[in-house]
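Structure in, sequence out. Go:
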């Protein structure tokens, strides 16, 4: 049975997600929008074992720790599902592009 890692959306962003228009396709989410353990603590990630995202939803609801709109479930393969009012939809992390090394920036400035 798959184990899902739970990523909880930061509370101050819940209203934005709640009232955002529904779009089809993969939801793009930013890691910075999700809660991290306090600095200096290696808190274990919240996890749930379930046969599907919907089974995980019901198991968490019955345990008194329900998923809220915007929360993510990530399976062992790294596939993610975001919980929305319409159910679960596919999600993917959006990572910022790394800045080029300083040497490259200096070289490109010298060429101009």
């Amino acid at each position: 049975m798959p184990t899902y890692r739970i990523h909880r959306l930061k509370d101050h962003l819940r209203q934005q997600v709640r009232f955002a228009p529904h779009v089809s396709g993969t939801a793009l989410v930013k890691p910075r929008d999700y809660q991290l353990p306090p600095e200096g603590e290696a808190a274990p990630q919240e996890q749930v074992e379930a046969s599907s995202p919907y089974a995980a939803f019901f198991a968490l609801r019955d345990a008194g720790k329900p998923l809220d709109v915007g929360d993510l479930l990530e399976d062992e393969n790294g596939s993610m599902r975001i919980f929305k009012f319409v159910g679960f939809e596919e999600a993917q992390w959006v990572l910022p592009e790394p800045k080029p090394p300083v040497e490259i920036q200096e070289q490109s400035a010298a060429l101009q």
